[in-house]
Amino acid sequence: MRSLARQTYRHFEVIVVRDGRTPVDQVVTGWQHELPITLLGTDQPLRVSHARNLALSHARGEHVALLDDDDVFLPHHLADAADALRDGQADAVYGQALVSHTWIEALPRTPHGLPRKDCPFDAVFLAVANTIHTGSLVIRNPASTPVRFDETMTHCGDWDFLLALHHTAGYRFNRLNTITCIYHQLPRPGAVTSAYQRSPTPFSRAQTTVYQRWPAQDRREGVSGVVPGVRRPDRRARRRRPARRPTPVGARRPRPPCHVHRRTRTGPYPPRPAAPAPGPAERRELSRADCPGAVRRHPCHELTPRTTG
Question: Is the pTM of this model over 0.70?
Fold first, then answer.
């Protein structure tokens, strides 16, 4: 509410939908002296898609902006959107959304250190992933179109809504070059956090529904279908690693003497002349550092005969 009261564009109405979980009557009453607020909803819990459709059915303005409780509009959000929609070149505009893990209501001095949701509009890429933040979106009122939020979807309903606006209602999207809102990803329990604690996650199931409902078009082939290698990458392929190339025998480094101990070497070493056979009156033995019975020796080894009485 505070971010709405700070808007430089003042020709708007506010529709608050109570989802039946958290009481908001006192909050709405505290802002009614500054904002034209209409409170809707029942005491029964409502899903997000149902709440948004209820608000759309009561919206009287020419354009509609969506604001969740984890979003904050910057003061120029509605003004920039109204200027972009006034020339009639687009039916939906969206700005850059700054992502913050702490609650802030204004741009920091160095916003470049924070991530942001900022992707140019691409219809093919939108069919692969949701690249538009709902809180940064301002659209022409879809009352004259059949497009509404799918109330059977508990997750990814905003993504399905954007695809329906583009493909069914023919909406033209335009991206603004400024940061217009702040999206807060706070470490608190919520619908998103609880959804990722299940397997398969509701997001994975909703993603499958969106892919089946709005198939992507491959620009390279000009046919409809799943974009190869983008939507469903082979998990086994991600685990594959290129096989190590065998090292040639001639490129191997000679092993140190400790590895030659008690082994007969037949490697690429030059032959050495055979030692003379010991006489019957003399007993010879090799030191422990040598290999007993070796015929071809490591170059670093030297035979040191030892005579024992």
Answer: no
